[in-house]
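Re: Re: ligand-bound prediction request (bumping)

Still looking for help on this. To restate: I need the protein modeled with magnesium ion bound, output as structure tokens. Inputs repeated here so nobody has to scroll up.
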Amino acid sequence: RKTTGSNPVQGVKKYINMRPYKKIKMEPISIKQAMDKGKGKVQIRGWIYRERGSSKLKFVVLRDSTDIIQCVIKKDKVGDKLFKIADKLQIEASITLTGTIKEDKRAPTGYEVETDSFEVIGMSDKFPISKDQSREFLDDHRHLWLRSRKMTAMLKIRSTVFAAIHDYFKQQGYYEYHSPIFQAVQCEGGSTLFKVDYFKQKNVFLSQSWQLYAEPAIFSLEKIYTIAPSFRAEKSKTSRHLTEYWHAEMEEAWATFDDIITHGEELLKHIIKKVLKERKSELEILGRDPKTLEPTLKKKFPKMTYTEALKLLDKKCGMKVKWGKDLRTIEEDKLSELYDLPIIITHYPKQVKAFYMKEAPDDKKTVHGVDFIAPEHYGEIIGGSERESDLEALKKRLEEMGEKPDEYEFYLDTRKYGSIPHGGFGMGVERIIAWICKLDSIKDSIPFP
Ligand code: 4AD
Ligand code: MG
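Reply:
Sorry for the wait, this slipped through. Here it is.
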């Protein structure tokens, strides 16, 4: 895309080389620190977020990672030469600016800096992104769209979510453990595998899940977790699927099915608690009312079996689902409308779940598998299970699903040498972020989808 005709950067370079600004010796501070200071001399730096002006006066809104602030540049004050440069400044030019900060109710963030001097660090060509641009345009300019207030707020929340996951597991005594990304077996069904050309070797795929190479390690560390990329060749474009997403997974020796479910609920509560504590203003920038997340923190999650969920769909939503069919997006969405917090669904029919899930001892048509469904149509945020620990039962499940047990030899060894009850789950981190930030699409919860 062509952005400019004449080159404004070149045009201003000669002025910059004249260095008409007064070099003021001061340590730059962040915009937030400057506003916390509230008065007196400050030096700040960042990028031009907005600009407007007349022949004597120029208003520049400066942006850094912490906030935005209005700065006024007066011709009288900075002199003709510097004012000429100010006049040429375009959106996204980077500058260092020195001046006096004071409260000003009319300014966008309640403070204004009256400029003594400024220095251009990098001029900007005409920035391609302006107001009201289409989704496609913003996707094409993703590397520049990351600078928007919306993406900045999301990225800060994203960072907090990752920190919360690490906190939770570290506090609970888990070790961080890493599985390979190149894997030789499938974990979650063949249809979404990304096959890799790995030195002509057959059957090498990108990881769909850390799980199968994590289970061997619980015999060493007992309690482990990770946050790592997972890959799914999802062909359909939906608002909740990515081909590359970040997957938070845990696996625990000796854990019961209930233990796994409790960890899922506690982890989600911990994430929401941290975000509400540290990221209220970012939530507001994104238009998410923090109050709508509070039920997740305060109330116990509703829990039901798959069979009970079908009854609820029939009674409350007028939707009939044949027992044995997996819940589709539309049914998950209807169920999520009945609550203002995540719901827990257990005991799915065996045929719709992965081979490694343990048969429910009291209802052999079902498995000890669990899904957590987010409120507000954000879909399945956690999938987990108690694992089948019996070698023969596991082989039988693999065969039923058309897999060759021979290819899973390393995995089956975990059931051969001191098998124990255990379980774990995986959480789609971008689904959590999309829900917390109230995003229209999961694509906006990751820098480069
Ligand atoms: O339910 P899934 O497929 O379960 C597993 O992979 C298990 N091996 C996890 C485990 O027990 N360790 O995936 C887990 C979660 C889903 O609940 C969903 O939140 C997320 O991963 N997920 C996706 N997120 C974004 N884009 C996709 N294409 C996703 N596919 C799954
Ligand atoms: Mg699942």
